[in-house]
Specification:
- This protein is about 5% helix and about 40% strand.
- The chain is mainly beta.
- It is globular, with a radius of gyration of 15 Å.
- The chain has one domain: OB fold (Dihydrolipoamide Acetyltransferase, E2P) (Beta Barrel), CATH 2.40.50.840.
- The strands form 2 sheets. A 5-stranded antiparallel β-sheet has the order 6-5-4-7-8, with helices on one face.
- Strand 5 and strand 6 form a beta hairpin.
- InterPro entries: ChsH2_C (IPR002878), ChsH2_Znr (IPR022002), NA-bd_OB-fold (IPR012340), Thioester_dehydratase-like (IPR052513).
- Pfam families: OB_ChsH2_C, zf-ChsH2.
């Protein structure tokens, strides 16, 4: 499996997934939310960062179905979606337990967590209860 790069800007995110929390970076100066995380606020330029815990629910903005080439540690096809979180940020992630011909724009998803090993937990997306 290809592992994500974890650095000082994203460590809080991965610490969150380890305890089943979807954390979104928040600027402590202006309260702007952002994803992916970075060193400075794109709105005000402040370096004072914190985070909020997302409710973990969002809507499919767009998606792709990856059929080729093979991905180490993954079975194809893989459904990847851009998810608009209810908090107002967009994040990309794998959608699981949805057939590649069932995913659709506007579908409501909820976050879940795939515990790969003791050092890595990945957020994945499933159909939200109200859409099943």
């Amino acid at each position: 499996m290809i592992r994500p790069m974890i650095n000082r800007d994203s460590q809080f995110f991965w610490d969150g997934t380890a305890v089943d929390e979807l954390r979104i970076q928040r600027c402590n100066a202006c309260a702007e939310l952002r994803f992916p995380p970075g060193p400075a606020c794109p709105d005000c330029g402040a370096l004072d960062r914190g985070f909020v815990v997302s409710g973990g629910v969002g809507t499919v903005f767009s998606y792709i179905v990856h059929r080729h080439p093979p991905v180490p540690g993954k079975e194809l096809p893989i459904v990847i979606a851009l998810v608009d979180l209810d908090e107002g940020v967009r994040m990309v992630g794998e959608v699981v337990d949805v057939a590649d011909d069932q995913i659709e724009i506007g579908m409501r998803l909820r976050v879940d967590y795939h515990h790969v090993d003791d050092d890595l937990t990945l957020p994945v997306w499933r159909v939200a209860e109200e859409d099943q």
